[in-house]
Design goal:
The structure holds two protein chains of two kinds.
Chain A: E1 2-4, E2 6-9, E3 12-19, H1 26-29, E4 53-56, H2 65-74, E5 81-84, H3 89-98, E6 102-104, H4 110-113, E7 119-123, E8 128-131
Parallel strand pairs in A: 3-4, 4-5, 5-6
Antiparallel strand pairs in A: 1-8, 2-6, 3-7, 7-8
Helix pairs in contact in A: 2-3
Chain B: H1 5-11, H2 17-33, E1 38-40, E2 44-46, H3 51-64, E3 73-75, H4 92-107, E4 111-114, H5 137-147, H6 156-165, E5 167-169, E6 183-187, H7 195-207, E7 212-215, H8 222-235, E8 241-243, H9 248-253, E9 261-264, H10 266-274, E10 284-287, H11 294-304, E11 307-309, E12 312-317, H12 319-324, H13 326-334, E13 338-341, E14 356-359, H14 362-372, E15 375-378, H15 381-388, E16 390-393
Helix pairs in contact in B: 2-6, 3-4, 5-8, 7-8, 7-10, 7-14, 8-14, 11-13
Classes of the chains: A alpha/beta, B alpha/beta.
Chain lengths: 133, 394
């Protein structure tokens, strides 16, 4: 199934979905060395976001979060791609400087459509998400 | 968002990867905020300078970029005085990393002047209605409010992107309708000097990120407006304010008075001076947040003239401003106070080793306790010098 979306950071990536309803503050919530979510209050606490198609509503917190995303990328533990409901500048800038595909405003609600472990392709260069299952 | 053929080519990578990344950032922000196009900017001020903030990842990203900025570009304050870091007690490893960051920016053609007051620098003479891309929150407030120029509060990468492309996305404070006040602030007393920083410290909390218009009994000086704006950007997130009959846009535009009004009374201002009074002697006195203007240096030089101060005192300013006024620097340093350039009490780790500090800045009062874990007391510039203690008068 192919779903249209808006391009924020260009690129193409395939991987397994990791989904959370919680917003993410990359500074503080995620360990830049391991890609593991270290905030006990977070829905993804203890899980690694490395190599996954990370689906979350939007970013929050400090703008230094952009550099944390770049650090994750340099340490090979960044998400393969990211899907937001509505992107904001911290995650957008972090994704662009790290070359991580990022899309938002899917034409169908990603939280209704996707579940953990689904195999999807994010083609943000051509503005679509493909669910392979 | 409309892009010119030239901008499309940049986005497709025709002019290299660095420019491609830069314009991708601008376009993404433009899309997020609903900009119609990119617009040229006159200058850029880039955040993300202190090694404490951006770390190795930030250093690596800046070092990986190629090319040259297209507009006059300058940096935010760094974590140390670039020349006198050793005297400040900065760790040599930190100093080495800080130098590397500054050199990486220099390779992109950015002027390595690190200051929160770029408007005092040559080549950064911003005028009313100019579009710019500045980062530091007090500089953004000063440019928007006191000068009437137009800038959003840029993050480090977006300001750097604007510097490389020479443009920014047309949204937020670049647009007329986003600059109209939505809350009025009534001041029922006379204010002077540090009162303005105290006012900003109080009012910023209520204003939040909105545009305010002040109704005052006095006409504040530019330095007083600098203190007011800096404090509101720290206790709140105010990037633009107007003062009825004073600031350029309020004079030109005759804004309709917003329905919501808050009032600030003398008692609230006085309370700011009273906070932490139980600390009967603070360890260090710091002034110059934001960095001192030539006029403020002059005032301090007159106050300390012929005196020897008992305690450590920092007077923070831009290196270029210090270099233009060697006589004032000499007078101030003769008293034992230190002229500190490129950095300040808020962003330098050197401030963390004190337990208590007296400041004359509402912005420093908002940040020093949380960012440096140092207790802060508020005073006028004259009382700051009294607090420093006069050892010797001749």
């Amino acid at each position: 199934m192919r779903i249209n979306c808006r391009t924020i950071s260009r690129g193409v990536a395939e991987g397994e979905v990791l989904l959370t309803h919680d917003a993410i503050s990359f500074l503080g919530n995620v360990d830049p060395e391991t890609g593991i979510v270290v905030e006990p209050q977070h829905e993804l606490y203890g899980q690694s976001i490395g190599g996954r198609i990370l689906v979350f509503p939007h970013g929050k917190g400090s703008t230094v979060g952009s550099y944390v995303i770049y650090q994750l990328f340099k340490n090979n533990v960044a998400p393969a791609a990211m899907i937001n409901l509505e992107s904001e500048p911290i995650v957008a800038v972090g994704a662009i400087i790290s070359g991580i595909p990022l899309v938002d405003r899917l034409e169908k609600d990603p939280f209704g459509l996707l579940k953990n472990g689904d195999r999807v392709v994010v083609n943000s260069t051509d503005a679509f998400v493909m669910i392979k299952k | 968002m409309y892009l010119t053929p030239e901008e499309e080519n940049t986005l497709d990578g025709e002019y290299g990867r660095s420019l491609q990344k830069a314009i991708e950032i601008l376009v993404a922000l433009g899309d997020i905020y609903g900009a119609d196009r990119l617009i040229p900017v006159k200058s850029a001020q880039i955040a993300g300078v202190s090694y404490k903030t951006i770390g190795d990842a930030g250093l690596e990203w800046i070092s990986d970029l190629e090319g040259e900025v297209r507009i006059p570009s300058v940096l935010n304050p760094a974590g140390m005085d670039i020349a006198r870091w050793d005297e400040m007690g900065i760790d040599p490893f930190f100093a080495k990393k800080q130098q590397e960051i500054i050199e990486a920016y220099a390779r992109l053609g950015i002027q390595t002047k690190c200051t929160c007051t770029p408007y005092y620098l040559e080549g950064f003479d911003v005028r009313m209605d100019d579009h710019i891309a500045w980062s530091e929150s007090s500089a953004v407030s000063y440019a928007n409010s006191v000068i009437g120029a137009r800038t959003n509060r840029e993050g480090g990468p977006s300001a750097l992107a604007a510097a490389l492309v020479g443009k920014t996305a047309n949204y937020g404070y670049h647009l007329d309708h986003m600059r109209e006040p939505v809350i009025a602030v009534e001041i029922d007393c006379h204010l002077e000097g540090a009162d303005y920083g105290a006012l900003g410290y109080i009012a910023g909390k209520d204003i939040g990120s909105r545009v305010a218009i002040f109704h005052m009994k006095d006409i504040p000086s530019k330095d007083e407006m600098k203190s007011l704006g800096a404090a509101m950007a720290a206790s709140g997130a105010v990037a633009l304010y107007h003062i009825e009959g004073v600031t350029p846009e309020a004079v030109r535009n005759k804004f309709t008075r917003p329905e919501e009004t808050i009032t600030v009374e003398r008692k609230q201002i006085d309370d700011v001076y009273e906070a932490n009074k139980e600390i009967d002697s603070t360890e260090i006195i710091t002034v110059g947040c934001p960095h001192c203007s030539p006029k403020e240096l002059q005032e301090i030089a007159e106050l300390v003239d012929g005196k020897k101060l008992r305690k450590e005192m920092w007077v923070c300013t831009a290196r270029e401003v210090a270099q233009r006024h060697p006589d004032l620097v000499r007078k101030i340093e003769k008293s034992g106070a230190k002229i500190v350039c490129d950095t300040c009490m808020v962003v330098s780790p050197a401030a963390n080793r004190y337990s208590s500090m007296t400041v004359n800045s509402g912005k420093a009062l908002a940040y020093v306790p949380s960012m440096c874990k140092v207790a802060a007391r508020y005073a006028t510039i004259a009382d700051c010098i009294k607090e420093a203690g006069v050892l010797d008068e001749n």
